[in-house]
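Deliverable D5.2: sample structural annotation.
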Amino acid sequence: MAPRSFWKGYLKLSLVTCPVAMTPATSENEKVRFHTLNAKTGNRVVSQYVDAVSEKPVDEDDEVKGYQRGEDDYVMLEDDEIDAVALESTRTIDIDSFVPRDTIEWIWYDKPHYLTPNDPVGEEAFSVIRDAMASTDMVGISRLVMYRRERAVMLVPRDKGIVLWTLRYGDEVRDETDYFGHIKEGKPDPKLMTLVTKLIDERTAPWNPKMVDDPVQDKLIDIIAAKKKGGKRVARPNSTAEEPASNVINIMDALRKSIGSEAKQKRK
């Protein structure tokens, strides 16, 4: 059963408007979560804001946002001042522009959400916008207040619905040339390329969601289940993983050994 939508509003393109509902496309509800407890009493520990100088608790009504401009010097902003610069409408996804789908690199993608029509009458308008984007290989760009901040969002047609991605802010994506710029250019040895390509072929497999299973989560569930039954504390296993070589004397020999190892594993 699909979870309830967490946002309802309107999708708008010029004079075409239709009611829509949105739900996060990903979930962490199944993750094992822990509370911090007092080991002596078993009671939960609660967090509280404390004045850094007086060390006295601060009431929620006295909390205010502050921008640091110097040491122990802040510009304080009230909530209504922050709200004044936000979008006037937080319930309308007004598509401002369209861009070719392949021009927005994955590094700008933040969180995906499923966008669906929320009214049978508006379903035709939703479908027209979705199919028009799909046929032109375009994605829609809009702005929306989500998670208490105004964000740029991208609308991508997918199957019968639309995936709405929140996009990262411009100052969140670091310039790749700062990290890749020092790497030397030049083509590798063709023989090495042949061996690495063969190694890639040996390890090629169809995508399967099990490839991103969380083994730590599974082990935590086992430990919790054992403790519920009164089991003893689980000892930390000794690591049997081999340490990688600190340097490769001969990459050609290493690749040949790797390919030989892959072949043996396949035969097994």
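Annotation notes: DSSP finds six helices and ten strands in the chain. Residues 7-26+85-172 form a domain with the Ku70; Chain: A; Domain 2 fold (CATH 2.40.290.10).
The annotation will be released with the project's public dataset once the embargo ends.
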